[in-house]
Amino acid sequence: MSKSQGDSSVPSGFFAQTAQRSHATANSSSRPAVTGTGGLSQQRGHFHNYGQPANFFNYGEPSQQGHVPSSSVPPSRKRGREEMFRCEPCDLELDSAIALESHKKSHVKCNGCDFEGAPKVVKGHFQSVHGKFSGNGWKNVTVAIPGCPVQRFRICVGNRPEDVQKWIEERKKRFPRSRPVQSEPKVELKAGLSTLLDGYSSSEDEHDDAAKPPAESPAIESSVVQKSEEKSTTPQKKPCHSFVRHGNCRRGDACPYRHDESLRKPKRNGRKQNGKKRDLLSNLLESDADREMKLSLQLVHYIVQSDFLRKRV
């Protein structure tokens, strides 16, 4: 058939309408329409209201201006803290009944009573209620350590005020450190110290003690005490440290302290050795060295006087 014949037998626009219909049929078969309430059609999860804008967010349920209704909130979010599942013996809060049941399966029973709870909780309960250090008052406790002898103690358990006060009183009796020290032990200590110093004195000191005059009478002692009391009542200036140490004071007569020649310390010849200052050890051992030297001289003097070497020969 020629082109002119085809144009005369088929009306104008036939092929264009047929193509549009076939395209619409293909689209409708690939996207099935689901009709809902209110004349709404859904295709692939989208709603179309024929000319009105769609505003749906809750998986197929229409919403107004993007607001999610309160009925769509899960009930788990509504439940507050007071609705949580709680285990009273263990003082534990859980989120669901299943978690609470699985937790209760781990409970054990106390050997001394009907208390039930987790193993760690039951152990603490037994020690505080049925254990060695439970209760109130005084208890005798035996402590056995491997490799050591068994020891027994009487201890105070609990925190009752009367028990604590009794424990404090017994401790004060056993360790009386808070009592004031009396004057008599001080006198005995002073006497013991004087005897110790006398034992270290040499024989020359004994001769010096023998050459001393007898003690003065009580009347003279009382007069001396009265004079000393009178002197103590009168205010005296403190000695000048610079004058006592060096023999002079840069302030001179303007110094507010007392310049007394009798308080000056005599200079020691052995203060310096070969132009060098003596060390601390030499200063500490100076008195012991002097005493040993005196004892050595006394020993030599005794050997000479007793003719000890000739008697041996």
From TrEMBL:
Entries under SUPFAM superfamilies matching the protein: CCCH zinc finger (SSF90229)
Keyword line: Metal-binding, Zinc, Zinc-finger
Listed PANTHER family: FMR1-INTERACTING PROTEIN NUFIP1 (PTHR13309:SF0), NUCLEAR FRAGILE X MENTAL RETARDATION PROTEIN INTERACTING PROTEIN 1 (PTHR13309)
UniProt cross-references to InterPro entries, sorted A to Z: NUFIP1-like, NUFIP1_cons_dom, Znf_C2H2_type, Znf_CCCH, Znf_CCCH_sf
Keyword Metal-binding: yes
Positions with biased composition (Basic and acidic residues): 250-264
One CC-aspect GO term: nucleus
MF terms (GO), sorted A to Z: RNA binding; zinc ion binding
GO process annotations (BP): box C/D snoRNP assembly
TM region positions: none
One Pfam family it belongs to: NUFIP1
Biased composition (Basic residues): 238-249, 265-275
Highest taxon, organism lineage: Eukaryota
ZnF (C3H1-type) residues: 234-262
Region described as Disordered: 1-79, 198-279
Biased composition (Polar residues): 1-32
Entry protein name: C3H1-type domain-containing protein
Keyword Metal-binding: yes
Residue ranges of every copy of the C3H1-type domain listed in the record: 234-262
